[in-house]
Specification:
The complex is a heterodimer of chains A (363) and B (359). Chain A is of the alpha+beta class and 363 residues long. Chain A has 2 domains: 4-233, Rossmann fold (3-Layer(aba) Sandwich); 240-354, OB fold (Dihydrolipoamide Acetyltransferase, E2P), CATH 2.40.50. Chain A has helices at residues 42-50, 92-96, 98-102, 107-120, 136-149, 166-183, 194-200, 218-223, 228-233; strands at residues 4-13, 16-26, 31-35, 57-62, 65-66, 77-80, 154-158, 186-190, 203-208, 211-216, 240-250, 253-257, 264-267, 278-283, 289-291, 299-308, 312-319, 324-330, 340-344, 351-354. In chain A, the strands form 4 sheets. In chain A, strands 6-7-8-3-9-10 form a 6-stranded mixed sheet, sandwiched between helices. Chain A has a 5-stranded antiparallel sheet with strand order 13-12-11-14-20. The mean pLDDT of chain A is 91. Chain B has 2 domains: 65-126, no CATH class; 130-353, Orthogonal Bundle (MetI-like fold), CATH 1.10.3720. Chain B has a 3-stranded antiparallel sheet, covered by helices on one side. In chain B, strand 2 and strand 3 (120-126) form a beta hairpin. The A-B interface holds A 50-52, 71-73, 77-79, 81, 83, 85-90, 98-99, 102-103, 130, 146, 150 and B 252, 254-255, 257-265, 268, 272-273, 276-277, 279, 358-359. Bound molecules: adenosine-5'-triphosphate (ATP) and magnesium ion. Adenosine-5'-triphosphate binds next to helix 1 of chain A. Magnesium ion binds next to helix 1 of chain A.
Chain lengths: 363, 359
């Protein structure tokens, strides 16, 4: 069990700085998920924690010990790779016990710890197989088992489920969740799968271009995104951003409107704006409610596409200023494309962002 | 699927492979059967006499080997005769095989090597000493060159497989001797090994401040074969380095990272990740080196001609020497066939020893 603290961590490959000053404190037993678009540096950050990449700057502490220059084996971590990285010529049993073989742990103890890990992952019957005789899910289970046997204080996962098919991914996701409960170890998990992040994490770290955009509990990120990037990244389908003009402001709210949006007063949480500013109104697809009477609606457009998923109906709408808007409507509903449609929404659930810049935290 | 493009274009395929196939047949398969056939005749390169079928007689002559025990010569009283230095005297095999019916079978055979056993003398006698010497030298050559060359090549491959600046220069340098013809290399190394003013002698002389006396590396029966081995290893090591290198690059780097996290040292990473990952490459390298080593010829032909004192005779050299030097085509064929059987047997044994035991 361990705490982990990063302060001012940076990583340069040649001239390119891919991690640009990361400060995160992770509590003992916490499940932290790193998410972000491809190439943002999630894997690099995780590998720095593992000791597989040198740290260019800043400090990394595990249990208050500075580990910047410590060998991976001495950091008390275990890592599960996207490509499993189990040794192809060893049986499952040998793979699980590899670290103990290296550490010259007595046979009886090794056997006992291997069996225990196999039991936790329900793969006792696979112990004598070779990796080539295992399915993808079983291989990843072996990789996780090998991590468990090490009894590390920190588990590191780099997209462990992304090579698995959807159904298996859901099973394994639940198993990893259970494993965390059972072992109570600190876990850091890299993914770009929203669902994995939302369901597994105690806290999510959103990264873009090597900079932490926001750290928080899943629902905190969902309901109170710190900037436009996080707002757009978390949630599926992603948040709509409607260009609006600020008509007037008082201290924590603003009156905004556009051609397709009737003037509405929304809270101003993120950035201070002033009257006349161009802004973007963030509306989650789930919070848009269609109305039958055009006059009752606040937001107007034309239906361009209807997707019926059974549990919900996702519609694409062209607003009057021709921006695309997505609404996810609960239940199976029938709409006709090409017809006019109007929506209402709860202004308190809307987010107002400045239209300037790319909406992310930069340095 | 029976009518797939592959089977439909069968005729075109055969037609296209015909030129290559013809060449292979003409220069490899046909001569191979020729050798088999000729080895059972008394064919000579040019001869007024007609060729006669002799069956396995040639093989019997060449492969004939026996162990004889010679009792010491005794005087009338039955005591062992010794010479002035006290060495026990034995009868000559040649005399025995003429006079003693028990030794008649050894007529025409010569002692290859022998040793003392109690009062008697044990001798291995053969009918064709040159063949046996060539066989011994060739086996010795293979036994030394295969593991040493394979091992050094692996070491080099591990070295040049690192991500360092300018590593490609090293790869090129190590590979360079492979590109040069073995004949040219042999010629050059004759200067290196020269007894009077050779590079090697000069080097040793300088390094040891004159303490090491000059050696005629190729003119001395005890160093000639070793010198040829060293040069042969140097010449082809780069080739096998490249094969090892390609094997190394099929091993996923993530496996090394996993091993690193699990606490494996460099040596343990080699033992548990690299070596098992190189299994198939190792089989290939060992079989290729063995076959090349058995074919030892050009070095001998250029550097020593089998000498001094037959210390560098090799099977292929003997085959050529007999077939063309002595115009004894059947004799050369017999050696070729024996060599073929030998290499085939060893390759099969190697395949069996290194077979996949996983499933
Ligand atoms: N060894 C390296 N040398 C140079 N640049 C590298 C190296 N490794 C990674 N990078 C760069 O660092 C950036 C971050 O890479 P990283 O692998 O951490 O991304 P990621 O967030 O894990 O992406 P993905 O979701 O696709 O796995 C990328 O722009 C990548 O090109
Ligand atoms: Mg990655």
């Amino acid at each position: 069990m361990a705490t982990l603290s990063m302060s001012g961590l940076t990583k340069r490959f040649g001239d390119i700085e891919v991690i640009r000053g990361v400060d995160i404190d992770i509590a003992d037993g916490e499940f932290v998920v790193f998410v972000g678009p491809s190439g943002c540096g999630k894997s690099t950050l995780l590998r720095m924690i593992a000791g597989l990449e040198d740290i260019s700057g800043g400090e990394l502490r595990i249990d208050d010990h500075l580990v910047n220059d410590m060998q991976p084996r001495d950091r008390g971590i275990a890592m599960v790779f996207q490509t499993y990285a189990i040794f192809p010529h060893m049986s499952v049993r040998e793979n699980l016990g590899f670290g103990l073989t290296i550490a010259k742990v007595p046979k009886a103890e090794k056997e006992q710890r291997v069996m225990q890990a196999a039991r936790i992952l329900q793969m006792e019957h696979l112990l004598d197989r070779r990796p080539s005789q295992l399915s993808g899910g079983q291989r990843q289970r072996v990789a996780i088992g090998r991590a468990i046997v090490r009894e590390p204080s920190v588990f590191l996962f780099d997209e462990p489920l992304s090579n698995l098919d959807a159904a298996l991914r859901m099973d394994m996701r639940m198993e990893i969740g259970k494993l965390h409960e059972q072992l109570g170890a600190t876990m850091i998990y890299v993914t770009h799968d929203q669902v994995e992040a939302m369901t597994l994490a105690d806290r999510i770290v959103v990264i873009k271009d090597g900079i932490v955009q926001q750290v928080g509990a899943p629902m905190e990120l969902y309901h109170q995104p710190a900037n436009r990037f996080v707002a757009g990244f978390i949630g599926s389908p992603s948040m709509n951003f409607l260009p609006v003009e600020v008509q007037s402001v008082d201290h924590d709210s603003a009156l905004v409107a556009s051609t397709s949006l009737d003037a509405v007063r929304v809270p101003m949480r993120v950035e201070p704006l002033k009257s006349g500013d161009q802004a973007l109104l963030g509306l989650r697809p789930q919070y848009l409610v269609p109305t039958n009477e055009q006059d009752a609606g606040q937001l107007h457009g034309t239906l361009s596409l209807v997707e019926r998923l059974g549990s919900e109906t996702v519609v694409d709408v062209n607003t009057r200023e021709n921006t695309r808007l997505v609404a996810a409507i609960a239940d199976d509903r029938t709409f006709e494309t090409g017809t006019e449609i109007a929506f209402t929404f709860d202004p308190n659930r809307a987010h107002l962002f400045s239209a300037a810049g790319d909406g992310a935290l930069n340095k | 699927m029976a009518d797939s493009k592959l089977t439909r274009s069968n005729r075109t395929g055969w037609l296209m492979s015909l030129p290559g196939f013809t060449l292979v047949a003409l220069f490899i398969i046909v001569p191979f059967f020729f050798a088999f056939g000729l080895s059972m005749t008394n064919q000579r390169l040019v001869s007024p006499n007609p060729t006669k079928y002799v069956g396995l007689e040639n093989y019997r002559q060449m492969l004939d080997i026996a162990l004889v025990t010679l009792q010491p010569e005794r005087d009338a009283s039955g005591t062992v005769i010794r010479d002035d230095e006290g060495t026990i005297q034995y009868p000559r095999l040649r005399r025995l095989s003429r006079s003693d019916p028990a030794f008649e079978r050894y007529k025409g055979m010569r002692e290859w090597f022998g040793w003392q056993s109690g009062e008697s003398h044990k001798a291995v006698v053969v009918r064709d000493p040159l063949f046996w010497i060539a066989l011994r030298n060739t086996l010795l050559f293979v036994l030394v060159v295969a593991p040493v060359q394979g091992g050094i090549a692996l070491g080099l491959a591990l070295l040049v497989n690192q991500k360092l600046r300018g590593i490609n220069a090293f790869r090129t340098i190590y590979f360079m001797p492979v590109v040069v013809s073995i004949v040219v290399v042999s010629l050059l190394w004759r200067f290196i090994y020269d007894g009077n003013d050779g590079l090697l002698n000069n080097l040793l002389d300088t390094l040891s401040f004159g303490a090491i006396p000059g050696v005629d590396w190729l003119g001395n029966p005890s160093t000639a074969l070793g010198a040829i081995m060293a040069m042969s290893i140097w010449q082809a090591v780069g080739f096998h380095m490249v094969i090892w290198l390609s094997g190394l690059q099929t091993i996923s780097p993530t496996l090394y990272e996993a091993a690193d996290i699990e606490g494996a040292s460099k040596w343990q990473a080699f033992r548990y990740v690299t070596w098992p990952g190189l299994r198939n490459t190792a089989v290939l390298v060992i079989i290729v080196i063995t076959m090349q080593a058995f074919a030892l010829f050009a070095q001998i032909d250029v550097m020593t001609n089998g000498g001094p004192l037959d210390s560098t005779q090799s099977l292929v050299f003997q085959a050529v020497e007999r077939g063309y030097g002595k115009q004894d085509i059947s004799g050369g064929s017999v050696i070729s066939v024996v060599l073929f059987v030998l290499v085939l047997a060893i390759s099969l044994v190697q395949r069996w020893l290194t077979r996949d035991r996983q499933n």
